[in-house]
Design goal:
Strand content: 15-25%
Shape: elongated
Strand order of the largest sheet: 1-2-3
Distance between the termini: 28 Å
Bound molecules: adenosine monophosphate
Number of strands: 5
Order of helices and strands: HEHEEHHEEH
């Protein structure tokens, strides 16, 4: 299964925030959309970073409640690992495991076209394996 196919099976659009969004506002965005990370986009739609709930938890330890009024640019990861739409779900699964990241933005010709979470990957793999299993069961039954 390719990422472009996975993206078709979920609502389109990527939740983004700007670098000066406060952590407090980020928490609202994450809760409202029921997601664990947001892509940080600056002027002219430039990809500036990614910020996840894990960043908030870790930095909360360093800064305490004062973190809430800081900008997300203070806690985001600037070197974003991205994938192209023609990569496979299996490849993405390895990337997520090796790098210990649960979110990967999908970029095509410099433009952000989607984001895939580890939950999306798990769902896609289960659907695929269940499909194969059902095919095998009916194949065996028909013999
Ligand atoms: P996550 O597992 O997605 O909650 O993120 C764990 C850590 O990796 C956090 O510090 C994130 O900022 C960072 N991170 C998440 N996704 C990416 C990505 N695609 N590229 C680089 N860093 C990431």
């Amino acid at each position: 299964v390719l990422l472009v196919q996975l993206l078709r099976s979920k609502p389109s659009g990527v939740t983004t925030v700007s670098p000066n969004t406060t952590v407090r506002a980020l928490l609202d965005v994450l809760a409202e959309h029921r997601i664990g990370a947001a892509v940080v986009v600056g002027e002219e739609s430039r990809l500036e970073g990614i910020v996840s709930e894990r960043d908030v938890v870790r930095k909360l330890r360093d800064h305490g409640a004062g973190l809430l009024d800081m900008g997300v640019d203070q806690i985001m990861t600037r070197e974003v690992v991205t994938c192209g739409p023609t990569s496979s779900v299996e490849d993405l699964m390895s990337v997520m495991t090796e790098r210990r990241i649960r979110h990967v933005p999908i970029v095509e010709q410099g433009a952000l076209v989607g984001i895939v979470s580890i939950g999306d990957v798990v769902k896609s793999r289960i659907d695929e394996l269940e499909g194969e299993r059902n095919d095998l069961i009916s194949y065996i039954g028909n013999r």
